[in-house]
């Protein structure tokens, strides 16, 4: 999920080191050695778009996003199907088996734990986004280029489709019977509530991503880059606990889209817009909040708020 760049201002003493992939990294922060160079590398829209297409590291990063999202969906959707199968009273009666399953807590841990693992594994290669909403938030903050953002989103969606496809292939007898892991609005909740849940949940996730990978904070606290995947994964875990009863928890358009494509039932498609509009709005709000409120990007551009004794 997640990874960025920062700062458009460069000084002679803060020049960027060019790595083998051509992406600049910040010297003297410990970020390079932590393997999180892609998280903090400033990639300018106009300069990077054309250059990135000529570099193998760009395609390597796209492949990493594809594989990471595939693995994410395979493990998590398989967990959901397994839980529903083990707690089905009809199935348990027939098989004379009574397994309690992992429960909502276990499902939330599966999602949060996989994000923790995959962000840790891919942060130094692609930034470990694994989520179009995270990529969108970073794009708005000008931390990834437009072409990289688009390619990441395509790779994430394709990876999600393939990951859920594997679950269906391996658990064909149970996949359709237990909902295919698709996100749907739960009974008793209206679409406005579902949309709000997705906006707030994605805000929590993307806000955590920005905070955990803030280059200014990492320059001061050298341990932060190594620990960044932990709060991100934990944010996913906590959001799932809160929103599984409402929407099944999307907060990741690729996750919702991949499950809908393979499951391919009307209900999943009817609610699909919630799982794109909500996360993108939540990501945009989180990006604006972090960049222009907490980090005061807009204020710095205009000068700064200072009390004037003459006013």
From TrEMBL:
Q: What is its main location?
A: membrane
Under the heading Pfam families, the entry gives: MIP
Classification via Gene3D superfamilies: Glycerol uptake facilitator protein (1.20.1080.10)
Q: Does the keyword Electron transport apply?
A: no
Which terms in the GO cellular component ontology are assigned? endomembrane system; membrane
Keywords, ordered alphabetically: Membrane, Transmembrane, Transmembrane helix, Transport
The highest taxon in the source lineage is Eukaryota
Give TM regions.
62-83, 103-125, 146-167, 194-212, 224-246, 273-294
Q: Where in the cell is it found?
A: Endomembrane system
What is the topology of this protein in the membrane according to its UniProt annotation?
Multi-pass membrane protein
Q: Does the keyword Transmembrane apply?
A: yes
GO MF, any single term: channel activity
The text of the family note is:
Belongs to the MIP/aquaporin (TC 1.A.8) family. PIP (TC 1.A.8.11) subfamily.
What is this protein called in UniProt? Aquaporin PIP2-4
